[in-house]
């Protein structure tokens, strides 16, 4: 029992020494009341500053959000205007393409007509040359006929003179 009592006492002393060390460490770690109050005041000030910063950040976030909404609305308006302008340009382009296609068809028709006209002109020139040659031949024939006619008139005149001379002689 004595040995057990000694062992218990030794264990109790060890535990007590350990508790004493812990208590001393806690006392050493303790802050004086004045310093604790200063730290509390500093903590309150920092919390107040933090609260103000959070409020400012919240205001800035709300303002930024409003700006983003406004910018987004402006972008949507600009996009809508760009879409409408693009649609207008597309419509204008289609109209211009249709006009160009119509003009191209007109030009093709005009070119075809011009080709037909050139062929007609060539035909008319050929016909004109034939007419000119025919006319020249007719003029030559007419000139030849006029010359023959002249000869015949001269012969007729000579015959009349001869008849005029012969007739008084035969009457006598």
From TrEMBL:
Major site of localization recorded for this protein: cytoplasm
Keyword Protease part of the UniProt annotation: no
UniProt KW keywords: Coiled coil, Cytoplasm, Cytoskeleton, Phosphoprotein
Coiled-coil positions: 36-165
Protein's cellular compartments: Cytoplasm, Cytoskeleton, Microtubule organizing center, Centrosome
GO biological process: microtubule anchoring at centrosome
GO cellular component, one term: centrosome
Keyword Phosphoprotein carried by entry: yes
The protein's name in its UniProt record: NINL protein
Source organism of the structure: Grantiella picta
Taxonomy of the source species: Eukaryota, Metazoa, Chordata, Craniata, Vertebrata
Gene that this sequence comes from: Ninl
């Amino acid at each position: 029992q004595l040995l057990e009592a000694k062992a218990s006492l030794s264990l109790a002393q060890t535990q007590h020494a350990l508790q004493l060390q812990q208590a001393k460490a806690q006392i050493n770690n303790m802050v004086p009341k004045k310093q604790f109050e200063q730290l509390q005041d500093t903590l309150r000030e920092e919390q107040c500053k933090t609260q103000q910063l959070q409020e400012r950040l919240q205001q800035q976030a709300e303002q930024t959000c409003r700006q983003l909404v406004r910018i987004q609305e402006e972008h949507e308006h600009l996009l809508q205007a760009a879409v409408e302008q693009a649609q207008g340009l597309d419509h204008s382009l289609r109209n211009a393409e249709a006009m160009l296609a119509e003009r191209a068809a007109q030009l093709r028709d005009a070119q075809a007509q011009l080709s037909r006209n050139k062929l007609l002109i060539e035909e008319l020139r050929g016909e004109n040359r034939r007419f000119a040659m025919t006319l020249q031949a007719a003029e030559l024939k007419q000139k030849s006929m006029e010359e023959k006619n002249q000869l015949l008139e001269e012969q007729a005149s000579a015959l009349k003179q001869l008849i005029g001379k012969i007739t008084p002689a035969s009457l006598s």
